[in-house]
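Design job #97: recover the sequence.
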């Protein structure tokens, strides 16, 4: 009799364990989904949409919409504010196309507690057309941060606030640095030129920097008010 009772109890316990695990399965799946989120739309005006990088769907942008790596954000008569998991804030201006290539998310492993970290991860964004403001709030030794166009590469080397605009029918890219420091990379010669806070520069389609000038106080105030970040 004791043997039968033991079998019944064991069966009951097994069922309870399986049921308990099944109840937590959706949360586990949701957790993995949240872990893959690159950013979240915090504010938006006008009409915009997101094309998923895997081609699965096209989503109308609204507050709270999640953004993933490889997504392409396209705006019409409106602007989109996004907060990314690497601590970056972005505003995509009107009639712009902005792609999230990949966003920094270093995963810790067990041996890191026993030896110094030495690898570097990187966040990469791409401006295909229009206007973009990026505010890089957090940067550390193990993180690189880059914004690219088809002919310009901008490396962010410290917390910075800057604007990029494709001008002259997309043949030039103007960069205005409000705070921080940037390295502008010539894609033809791989030469690097530093851009300091309060200055602007124009990069041509051949990768050369055309000019560099100091921003006036009025320009800085206008740009900050215009973007609203």
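Job complete. Output follows.
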């Amino acid at each position: 009799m004791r043997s039968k009772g033991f079998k019944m109890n064991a069966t009951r316990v097994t069922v309870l364990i399986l049921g308990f695990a099944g109840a937590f399965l959706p949360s586990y799946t949701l957790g993995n989904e949240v872990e893959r989120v690159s950013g979240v739309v915090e504010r938006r005006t006008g009409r915009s949409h997101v094309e998923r990088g895997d081609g699965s769907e096209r989503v109308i942008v609204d507050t709270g919409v999640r953004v993933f790596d490889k997504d392409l954000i396209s705006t019409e008569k409106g602007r989109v504010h996004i907060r990314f998991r690497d601590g970056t804030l972005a505003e995509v201006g009107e009639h712009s196309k902005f792609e999230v290539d990949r966003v920094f998310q270093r995963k810790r492993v067990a041996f890191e507690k026993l030896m110094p970290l030495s690898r570097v991860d990187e966040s990469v964004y791409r401006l295909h057309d229009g206007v973009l403001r990026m505010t890089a709030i957090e940067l550390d030794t193990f993180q690189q941060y880059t914004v690219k166009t088809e002919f310009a590469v901008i490396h962010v080397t410290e917390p910075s606030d800057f604007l990029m605009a494709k001008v002259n029918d997309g043949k030039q890219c103007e960069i205005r640095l409000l705070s921080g420091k940037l390295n502008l990379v010539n894609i033809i010669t791989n030469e690097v030129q530093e851009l300091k806070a309060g200055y602007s520069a124009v990069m041509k389609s051949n990768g050369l920097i055309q000019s560099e000038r100091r921003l006036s106080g009025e320009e800085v105030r206008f740009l900050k008010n215009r973007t609203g970040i």
